[in-house]
TrEMBL record:
It comes from Bifidobacterium primatium. Keywords: Membrane, Transferase, Transmembrane, Transmembrane helix. The chain crosses the membrane at residues 7-27, 33-58, 70-92, 112-133, 145-166. It comes from the Bacteria. GO terms for molecular function: transferase activity. This is 4-hydroxybenzoate polyprenyltransferase.
Length: 170
């Protein structure tokens, strides 16, 4: 399950980096690209650390009720629902907590739904790929450790930028 968590966190970080320009356009360029991408990676890694293992366990238990070839689909559905809800609640909260004290308009309802959809797709892809690639990755310990270290470094960078956001506003 640790290899699955590393795969999910890695895929989510890559997807967050790819989707960062979309979020930045939703907030009218209030964030720079690299800081927001790093903060988004931090939020994805926090999801995996706080709730991800429970949802991986849930997906694994659901997958046992289906033929083996449908297991990735059940993982993807659980990831889609769980990260979609997490993203819909957490991401707009963090964005608005920076925008409102800076005197900028908060994120609109339509953009919140776009964030929910974005996070749901990221969760789907992350959990689906974890179900497919984690068994092979678990046999390659150095690669798994390297991926974990890179993800933790990106999340530490995100924590640094998040601290910078709040210290500037404070």
């Amino acid at each position: 399950m640790l290899a699955q968590a590393v795969v999910v966190a890695s895929v989510m970080c890559v997807c967050e980096i790819i989707c960062a320009p979309v979020i930045i356009s939703m907030v009218s360029g209030a964030f720079a690209l690299v800081p927001w991408a790093a903060v988004a990676c931090l939020l994805a890694v926090v999801f995996m650390a706080v709730l991800g293992f429970a949802f991986l366990w849930l997906a694994d238990n659901i997958a046992h009720n289906f033929p083996a070839r449908f297991a990735p689909v059940s993982y993807g559905i659980v990831g889609m629902a769980s990260f979609g809800i997490w993203g819909g609640l957490i991401y707009p909260t963090f964005i608005n907590s920076v925008l409102e004290p800076a005197g900028l308009p908060s994120i609109s309802g339509g953009n919140v739904w776009a964030i929910v959809f974005n996070c749901a797709i990221i969760g789907l892809v992350g959990f689906l790929l974890a179900a497919i690639f984690a068994p092979r990755l678990s046999r390659r310990v150095p690669a798994c450790v390297a991926m974990g270290v890179v993800v933790l470094a990106l999340s530490a960078l995100g924590a640094f930028f998040l601290w910078g956001f709040y210290s500037t506003l404070g």
